[in-house]
User: What shape does this take?
Amino acid sequence: MRPDESTYLQTRTEQMVERAGLRRRDLLKLGATLPLAAGVASWVGAAPAGAATTPIVKPLPPEWFVNYGTNAEMRWETARDLGYTIPNERFFVRDHTATPLIDERTWKLRVFGSGLDGPGVELTYDQLRRMPQRDVVTAIECAGNGRSFFATQQGTPSPGTQWGLGAIGVARWRGVPLRGVLERAGISSRAVDVMPVGLDASVVSGGVDYGHVRRPLPVGKALDDALLVLAMNGEDLPPDHGFPVRLVVPGWIGVASVKWLGEIEVSDQPLFSYWNTVQYVMTGDAYPSRPVLGAQTVKSAWELAKGAELPAGTPVTLTGRAWSGTSAIVSVEISTDQGASWTPARLQGQRGAGTWTLFRYACRPLEAGPAQLWARATDGSGRTQPLVATFNSNGYLFDAVVRHPVMVR
Ligand code: MTE
Assistant: This one.
């Protein structure tokens, strides 16, 4: 690396980190490696013994996030004060290893594979930016969102991050349709699978190196609505959310939306990785055929703290959001008597698949004491949240009605 390039990269990294709300001295305290090596610096394992470390770059104030180390969950009670989209600094983060800092000047996207006619293409950041772009408002939601309720509500715990319901966010994403890039690369009618590969550190578990985060997408979905995203809510992607370029796959489980993209393999044969064979498949007694996860399920959440206090005898309007990966939400029903009766909530506009619809419920809690709020959403395909989610050993797609505890005083 030439000295001037190294200075540029260092400055650039600091700018990115500052944009993410972290100052240089914080970065050094966290043990980050500067300058970047080959355009990518990762700070895994670089911290001095005893130093506070976080693999996530942006600040995670406890009033906004539940911090799980490599993952950070949005606190649902804070969504009440937010608009339809979740601001970048409030958006949940899910990293399999750690957020890498990538220099967009040296970054390239390589598209290659047996599903192309010809050798494929390599695109720089500027080349990609000059291609036609469009905006999509859609959610990214982790497949494990709601996992903790398998334990707390159903008594059948499953391992992994014990998310509440805050491993979801909706943003306005701007980018180049993946279709445009695949066509430019010469995609052929033989193509079957499209595998985006992340530039973050390889995932090592139990002494086995599973390589970079990567997960094949069927060619139909890839050509339909997948987007190579450069901007989130009107700003360059923040480092934690995939700078310089990530994929966003509307309606699908979050892992499909690969961050920090480096390569896309287009294959005329089905492709496999750890993320569609071991992780992100349904396993356990109810799923002998081990179906691979794709679209997200139906869910709803109150914009309310667990155990929130409601004044007895006083009218109150409670709010929440409901969503489904496959179609629009058509109704949300509320029960305050543990499912004996249901009252429709008022939907605030209707939104399509893969994003949420806001709902309101006006009530006057009468009896003082502990109570539960239940919300049950139905989508346009007729799928209604069940009272019990089917158990699977990885704890994915928890879709049951959540018993939200409140205290009436
Ligand atoms: N892409 C890469 N390269 N590495 C990752 O760890 N995590 C995935 C996905 N893309 C991940 C990734 C998972 S499991 C989810 S839920 C989403 O990114 C989370 O996106 P966010 O951190 O921007 O909210």
User: Anything to note?
Assistant: The first strand starts at residue 40 and ends at 41. The pocket of MTE is lined by residues 91-96, 140, 142, 198, 200, 213, 241, 254-255, 257-260 (CB under 6 Å). The helical segments are 3-19, 24-29, 125-129, 148-152, 178-185, 219-224, 274-277.
